[in-house]
TrEMBL record:
The chain crosses the membrane at residues 268-292. SUPFAM superfamilies: Integrin alpha N-terminal domain. It holds the Pfam family C2_ITFG1. It comes from Anhinga anhinga (Anhinga). This is TIP protein.
Length: 314
């Protein structure tokens, strides 16, 4: 059953729609197929999308962000989620004649930025635009990449082969959200290779505002036809805001798979360090003031004692 998750294409008095694919070989214009590029830009755990829309008059086509929000109409009630077009993104709206838009983690900080390809000034020319995601919220993520675990030749002994990222792995996690409820999330790695897929070689899984450890993280890879055993491995207690590199070697022995965890420092670490240093300086200042006051009191008592001694001597 097909469920409509995006129906509202009207922005004020302008009606927008997807750019139709033109299969005209005699035309000099390059036509791109209709493609949604998926990514969780706000790290709430629900995948958002980027799409190219064109107004009905045909005067302009732009890249728009489709935010994944709770369903508010009857048509998508069974799915409970829907896409809502983010019409008012000033930086994205300034790019005219866009043809392709996708997500990319430019700064390797776990926050997905946007890359837009638009038509140039002359026919056949294109320009690339990058937009930094300024999303600032106490949301967390985990970045997972599953490698192939292969060598170009026979693998040397006692050396774990890394290989390259492979298409098809499935990643799933379970954790507890900020309200104490069980939360699940999953994603596939490199699920598409044609029609300008432009997918990331890894998966960025948004965790929302839950800073809890991931209770379980499952990684599975495709198995050859005829094999009955499932190639899946589980890791526990994964730290948020980290990158996990999974090396499935050997493929048919999931218990021997290895994983390398890399932490991604964020502004919260810097702010925590500044706050800690500030508290220490404040405590030292109080100790210094109290010590100075105590020293003054001791000097005053010594002078009074010396004055009393001279008075008794007289």
């Amino acid at each position: 059953q097909w469920i409509p998750v995006l129906q509202d294409f009207r922005n004020k008095d302008t009606l927008w729609g997807f750019v139709p694919y033109q299969n005209d070989k005699s035309s000099t214009e390059i036509s791109f197929p209709i493609t949604l590029h998926i990514g969780d830009y706000n790290m709430d755990g629900y995948p958002d999308a980027l799409a190219i829309l064109m107004n009905t008059s045909g005067s302009n086509q732009q890249a728009f962000l489709l935010e994944n929000v709770p369903c508010n109409n009857v048509s998508c009630k069974s799915a409970r989620r829907m896409f809502k077009v983010f019409w008012e993104l000033s930086d994205l709206n300034q790019i005219k004649d866009a043809v392709v838009a996708t997500f990319f983690d430019i700064y390797e900080d776990g926050i997905l930025d946007i890359i837009v390809l638009s038509k140039g000034y002359s026919n056949g020319d294109f320009a690339i635009h990058t937009l930094k995601n300024n999303f600032e919220a106490d949301a967390y993520f985990v970045k997972v990449i599953v490698l192939s675990g292969l060598c170009s030749n026979d693998c040397p002994r006692k050396i774990t082969p890394f290989g390259v990222n492979q298409p098809g792995p499935y990643i799933k996690y379970t954790t507890v959200d900020a309200n104490g409820y069980l939360k699940n999330g999953s994603a596939g790695q490199l699920s598409q290779s044609a029609h300008f897929a432009l997918q990331l070689p890894y998966n960025v899984l948004g965790l929302g505002r839950s800073a809890n450890f991931l209770d379980h993280l499952y990684v599975g890879i495709p198995r050859p036809s005829g094999e009955k055993s499932i190639r899946k491995q589980e890791w526990t207690a994964i730290i948020p805001n980290s990158q996990l590199i999974v090396i499935p070697y050997p493929h048919n022995v999931p218990r021997s798979w290895s994983a390398k965890l890399y932490l991604t420092p964020s502004n919260i670490v810097l702010l925590t360090a500044i706050a800690l240093i500030g508290v220490c300086v404040f405590i030292l200042a109080i100790i210094g003031i109290l010590h100075w006051q105590e020293k003054k009191a001791d000097d005053r008592e010594k002078r009074q004692e010396a004055h009393r001694f001279h008075f008794d001597a007289m």
